[in-house]
Amino acid sequence: MTSIVKISNLEKYFGRLHVLKNISLEVPERQVVCLIGRSGSGKSTLLRCINFLEQPSKGTIEVDGIVVHGGERGRENRQLVHDVRLKTGMVFQEFNLFPHMSVLENVIEGPITVKGMDREKAIKLGEEHLDNVGMLFKRDEYPNRLSGGQKQRVAIARALTMEPRVMLFDEPTSALDPELIGEVLNVMKRVAKEGMTMIVVTHEMGFAREVADRVIVMAEGELIEDARPTDLFSNPKDPRTKALIDRYRSGEQQ
User: Fold this and answer.
1) Which of 14, 24, 53, 102 has a 20 to 30 Å separation from 133 between CA atoms?
2) pLDDT at 253 over 60
3) Which is nearest to 26 in space by CA: 57, 54, 2, 45?
4) DSSP output for 1-46
């Protein structure tokens, strides 16, 4: 199976703080990978390095055949980063919708301004993705009239309207009230079933168990375990993984 994301010997420093340590990882096309670990383990930083919201200090990142070397600057590097971002959709914790734009305007802004898409085509595509996430009926509303779950579903539609090859989710349910989490996870499950390659940073272990093809555990900037969900949750190899799963199970029982 062809790998659509390849990360080799990735290092990330924030000043003297060594946040990512020699990360190497491949993600085949159409695979769903969940990244789990304690807060501060480097999960979100790794995700943000993939589309260069954080500049890697060393190593290489390849997305759909585009190879970018960490730590490099210059016009050619900027163009490669731009090309990688066109291949990757990003969904954030805090939605990041433009408050002065309607739902539909939020969704079509990227394809029109970044990709130069014809407005009518962008509207048609945007409405299609809003319909897919159950938000077409809110196309003319503004973000301040939406619930948190609705905002996140619009954010997912916005990312999909860019027609990415890979979707990156950075703890997409962490800012939501508990009763709204399910509606967002259901949309993500649907996106996964449609064959989208997904890398998901999450604390939702149930989602990881049900939807992921692989679960990768991070600790102190390193990948410490990488396995199928059934194997990882039933027989973790690293004691830090076992402690993480035990904490999740104890929380389930409370």
Assistant:
1) 53
2) no
3) 2
4) --EEEEEEEEEEEETTEEEEEEEEEEEETT-EEEEE-STTSSHHHH
